[in-house]
Specification:
The chain is of the alpha/beta class. The chain is built from 7 helices and 9 strands. The protein has 2 domains: 193 residues, Rossmann fold (3-Layer(aba) Sandwich), CATH 3.40.50; 34 residues, no CATH class. A hairpin with a 5-residue loop joins strand 8 and strand 9.
């Protein structure tokens, strides 16, 4: 089975791109879809109703959605296997700009919203810089010159990625992504112990992470970074 992990900033058009890509795959493949979100989602219901493929949702709630994705990836793969899928799409909420959900045994796809401006690729973080494919979405809303500058900024951040211009409304470009899934997506190892994240999770684990609500700095422990950039470890 092949694994495709899709991330990107909120509102970038990830789900629309995924749906159009799946439409190009369903005739020749048994696909399954998992949507990871924070508090609520109906995207899995839309995919299941529109395409008739197995689809489910995972809600991270008070857990980082990218951590949630990594923690539940083996469960997702086993579920997809039970459904008889040969391609599993996992779409993540993409809220944390320091995490990356991609693993070494997947096709990592970042959906980038060109309307966020030419400086945004440098701000997105590992889910763009470690992606195999970057889909430049909503290009119909800006000029060709703006798209060209945006793509140039993407290649500066991630020179090894393939860039595809997509349109989540019409599906333009999604057939190219489907071809990459068929030709370049690796097989998932049988033993998930052999699967690793491409990017380490952030170092900052602090008392806020485990429930402290008071903000006074002397009350906090863990790996901490000050506003002047100094990082310290405080605690046992």
């Amino acid at each position: 089975m092949k694994l495709v992990i899709v991330s990107g900033t909120p509102g970038s058009g990830k789900t629309a791109v995924v749906i159009h890509t799946l439409e190009n795959l369903v005739d020749d493949h048994d696909v399954a879809y998992l949507k990871v979100d924070c508090l609520d989602t109906e995207d899995h219901e839309i995919v299941e109703e529109r395409l008739g493929v197995p689809a489910k949702a995972g809600l991270a709630k008070d857990m980082c959605p990218d951590h949630f994705t990594a923690y539940n990836l083996e469960r997702a793969v086993r579920w997809a296997e039970e459904e008889g899928a040969d391609v599993l799409f996992v779409e993540t909420a993409g809220l944390c700009l320091r995490c990356s959900p991609y693993v070494d045994a997947c096709l990592g796809v970042c959906v980038a919203d060109v309307t966020l401006g030419p400086k945004s690729p440098a701000k997105v973080g590992p889910f763009l810089s470690t992606a195999d494919v970057v889909c430049v979405n909503k290009g119909d809303l800006v000029s060709q010159a703006e798209r060209d500058v945006f793509i140039k900024k993407i290649t500066e951040v991630n020179p090894d990625c393939k860039v595809i211009e997509t349109n989540g409304l019409t599906g333009t470009g999604c057939e190219l992504l489907a071809e990459l899934v068929e030709k370049e997506c690796p097989e998932i190892p049988t033993d998930m112990r052999d699967v690793r994240l491409r990017e380490k999770a952030p170092l900052c684990v602090c008392t806020l992470c485990v429930g402290e609500t008071r903000v006074a700095s002397d009350l906090h422990r863990g790996v901490l970074r000050r506003i002047d950039g100094f990082m310290e470890y405080r605690g046992e």
